[in-house]
Structures are given as C-alpha cells and as structure tokens.
Amino acid sequence: MKKKHNEEAEGAAISRRQLVRYAGVGATLVAASPLVAVGPAAAHDNDHDDKVKPGDSRNRIWRAGDHHVHSEYSGEFDTSANPPTFHKGADAVYPIVTNAIMAKHFGLTWAMCTDHGGPTHSKVNLEQAYPDLLRSRVLVPEVLQFWGMEFDAPALDHHTLMIPHHSGEAQQLFELESRFAKNDPFPADPGRNTEAKMIEFLSAAKSMPHKPLVIAHHTSRSATGLGVYGQDTPREFRNGHNVAPEIYVGFEGAPGHQAGPLAGGARGGYGNHPTYGGFDQMTARVGGLWDSLLGEGRRWWITATSDSHVHWTRGGSDFWPGEYSKTYVHARQDYADIMDGLRNGRIWVTTGDLITSLDLTASSQGREAAMGETITLSRRNRGDVEIEIRFRPPQGANANGDRPQVRRVDLIVGQITGPNADLDADTNPTTKVEARFGPRDWRKQGQEYVIRHTLRNVETDMYARVRGTSTDEAEPLADGQESPWGDLWFYSNPVFVQFR
After folding, report:
1. pLDDT of 135-169, one tens digit each?
2. pTM score
3. d(Cα 417, Cα 403) in Å, to the nearest integer?
4. Alpha-carbon span 304 to 252, nearest angstrom
5. Tell me, which fold does domain 16-33+54-499 have in CATH?
6. How far is residue 469's CA from residue 475's CA, in Å, rounded to a whole number?
C-alpha cells in the first residue's frame, strides 16, 4: 500500500510553517537592497564563456537543479489596452529571489525561472523580469540562475528555453521570444502557431553562436489515454530533433505539480490520463515513446522539475524547487558546464530524495562509458558487456521528514535499430527489463551500493538505462490520490553501446 501523507512529520530540517514564512523573505530582501547593482556589472558577475573545452571533466560532481520554475512574472495581460498592460502575480506569486532562496534551502545549486509568455511578453522579460534576475544572482550567488522562459512553442505545449549565460543573454531571449513565441504577437497571429514555425525557431536557435537548450514540458498532460497523445506527438519530437539535435534535447520525464494529491488534485495536473509513479507515460512505459526514440539512436534525455507556481500549503499544487523533484547533472559549478551536461545527457532524476547519487557505466574490451556516453566496440570482438550501477541513499531525512529506502533497481535494455520510417511510432519492441535487483543483490562500498551485471554475447547496437523505486510495484501504477511521498522513483539517462 502507498502510505498516506503525514502533515506533522518529524525530522524535517525546517517545518512547513517556517517555510511559508521564509518564502516571503525574498521580496523583502529585494526591496531593502538599494545597493544591489542591476546594470551590466551585475549581469555578468561570475560570468563565464559559454563554451566548454572538450574532454575537460575536472571537478565534475552530481549537482541538483530545476529548469522549470515560475515566478510572479507568470502574470496576466489586460488586452483592452494597446499595447496590453502586464500585471504580476496572477498565475505564480513568488519573486525570483524567493525561488532562489528556496532552491538553495532544498539543496539545488542551479535553477531557472521559466515564466509564461503572452502578448508582448518579450518586452516584459527584457525590461522587468531580467533586472530582477540580476538582483537575485547577487543575493543568492550559491545558486546558478539561468535566464530563459517557458516558451510558447508553436503547435506544441510549453517548453523550456534555456539561454546560455553570456553578455547578450537578455537580448538573445528577446529575439527568440519576439520572433517565434506563438502568444507574443498582439493582435494574435495564427500563423505563429504552426509546426513550420517551430521548425523555423529551432533552425534559428541552431544558427546562433550561443546555442540555447529546448526541453519539452508535461508532454502528455493533454493526452486522453495511453498512447493517445494531445498537443505533443512523436512526429513533432522527431521532426524537431532532426533539425536541431544539439538544441532540442529531451522532455520532462517527471513533470511538476507533484503535490496535486495533497491539495485534492492529480499529480502533474494530468486530469485526462494519469502519470505513473509521478512520471509521464512517454517515459514510464517500458518500450514506450522514450525507448522508441532511443532505439533510433537519438540522444534524447529526460529531466524532472517542480513547475512551481504556488506551494500546496497556500492553495497551489506545487512543491518548492528541489523539495520533491531533482534533476542531477554531472558538472562543475559553472553555467557552461551545467548546460553541457544537460545537452549531453549527463543527467539522472529522482523524487523525494530517494537517492543522492547515481552512476551507470558500461564496459567491454577495456573501454568504458557512462550516462550520456557511447562505448564503441569492434564487431570482430563482440562479446560480453559489463554493467555497473552505483547509488547512494540519503544520509538524513527528506523534506517530508522521511528516510526513504530503495526496494528495487531495474536494469532496462533495448536495441538500436536506426531511424524509424513511421514518424508516429511510440514503441520499441526490443526494450525489456533485463534484470531486477533487491537489497540482497547489491553490495555496500563506503556510502554507496554497487550492483554489477553482465550482458552476455552482445551483438547489436544497444542502450542501457536504470530505474529504482521505494515501492513494491513491478511497473509503476497509474497515479491516484495517494501521497506522492510514498511513491518514489529514480531514473537514469542511458549509456550507449555501438559496434564498428
């Protein structure tokens, strides 16, 4: 049985009442900080070149973050005026700095406000939101705070548009939003809401010297059944990835709004067809759409986010950034390297702090590759591939005051068979759970647990990925009103094996 939520859980580092009081401190800090610089010097405090040197992996560790957080700049527009008048705080209510403070409290080292667009919103971002981001960077320097937005993707649901940290970041976002966001024109322009416009946007982003990242949000929230998709379809993901594979890199495996059941709603806000263990059907179904894309050899990654608008204790359906969901990236504490990790799949995700570290490696013929990487082997020496999984449980209680335990780890493998002629394909029949491991199957080494497994006589290109859970569910079940704290999962991104 999935356990019920305990509102008075002991052991949390800070009570929910304290958190709610703490949440208002950001606005006070900004208002009371007249000496905070907001000009060019502040914009580039700790600025970095957004290029990463090839092979430079020094000082990389797993760093938790969240690329989908809303601030008071997810507001509303009065369109009775021309130009429309923007009002803060209609949809999300917290200042940017409040989100940064809470992200820091819950262990994040990088984050990003992704506010909604709207008619002429590109000017709001440039003239109002960006100066507040600069203040927040000064006030909370421990959290790398990316600039970007929740992009109104033409013909699709929302997407993260993450801009590299550089001297022209504000102007770069303004250019992309004003030219391509479907809701930015006033009056509205139906020609902005087409797949052709999305392809044009990705082509333009690809041509820029500072290349952004694009990640799809809550991709099955509009789906009406298992494999019955809504706004986002397999065809659109393939077409976009074909145009800009280094820009359009994945989707949310676990969407935000995970506190929905604590407020009487659905996890993720998925009112038509549910999530599974908190994960979108496109990710959670073994052999489903994610595996179909990986089976083509696509480097397509998953993340987990809060989509924080309003905390569930204040009438929303959300957790704070990092309170429940975390996206870990293997990187230095550096804007460019965080983006490089997201771009290249050095990513794993977890909910409820089920684990705090995860490593997946494949080795053979004296070669080794980790998450997001490829091990290339000789066809003349085909043989066994050794898989090693290392994970670390939390040392203390999570934000709910619980000490969750991993009950099972699954190794999932699938073949890579090349591009699929059917752009609507959403299955990979070769994908399977290769092995399931319980506590008797892993060995403790220091603070980590280690699992080793041999894939025998590997003869075809393939990938391997890992998931784990605190539950006894063989496959994640459709979510209902159970507490999200009793239904925890982690997922790795894949490691690839190819023959030459």
Report:
1. 999 999 999 999 999 999 999 999 999 999 999 99
2. 0.91
3. 41
4. 6
5. TIM Barrel (3.20.20)
6. 10
